[in-house]
């Protein structure tokens, strides 16, 4: 399901425009913004130039899916981690820090974008 939609969005400009303009209504199979899949991989949707709150466990893999027209980065304010730029064609993968705590991060491309990654004790 998801792969099919990605494939459509990767098709020529006309389709791509259709995909992005319909994004708000075609939110798909009820998957909301923050969803921990139960395994150690969580998927985070970055949409409307906003990061959702993220809670995870040490060493977990977090997949950032970009639904905006522009690329983003996830850069810890204290430089503990940095991924990206990633965009709608290729998600970003972040391995959560091993040390529990609260990490503030931002997007280097859009200085107004800020988020918080909370790493819980395992
Ligand atoms: Cu950004």
Describe the protein in words.
By secondary structure, the protein is α+β, with helices and mostly antiparallel strands. It has one domain (31-119): Immunoglobulin-like (Sandwich). It contains 2 helices and 9 strands. The protein has helices at 2-10, 13-21; strands at residues 34-36, 41-46, 54-56, 61-66, 72-76, 82-86, 92-95, 101-106, 114-119. The strands form 2 sheets. Strands 3-9-8-5-6 form a 5-stranded mixed beta sheet, with no helix packed on it. A 4-stranded mixed beta sheet has the order 1-2-4-7, with no helix packed on it. A hairpin with a 7-residue loop joins strand 8 (101-106) and strand 9. The structure holds copper (II) ion.
* CATH structural fold name: Immunoglobulin-like
Q: Provide the gyration radius in Å.
A: 15 Å
Mean pLDDT: 79
Strand order of the largest sheet: 3-9-8-5-6
Q: Segments where pLDDT lies below 50 for 5+ residues? A: 1-38
Q: What is the 3D form?
A: globular
Can you write the helix and strand succession as a string? HHEEEEEEEEE
Structural class: alpha+beta
Instruction: Please name the CATH architecture.
Output: Sandwich
CATH superfamily descriptor: Cupredoxins -  blue copper proteins
Ligand roster? copper (II) ion
- The number of strands is 9
Approximate strand percentage: 35-45%
């Amino acid at each position: 399901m998801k792969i099919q939609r990605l494939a459509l969005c990767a098709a020529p400009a006309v389709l791509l425009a259709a995909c992005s303009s319909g994004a708000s209504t075609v939110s798909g199979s009820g998957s909301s913004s923050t969803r921990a899949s139960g395994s150690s991989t969580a998927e985070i949707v970055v949409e409307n130039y906003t990061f959702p709150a993220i809670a995870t466990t040490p060493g977990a893999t977090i997949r950032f899916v970009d639904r905006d027209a522009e690329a983003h980065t996830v850069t810890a304010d204290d430089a503990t981690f940095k991924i990206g730029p990633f965009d709608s064609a290729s998600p970003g993968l972040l391995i959560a820090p091993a040390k529990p705590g609260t990490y503030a991060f931002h997007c280097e491309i859009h200085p107004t974008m800020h988020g918080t990654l909370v790493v819980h004790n395992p």
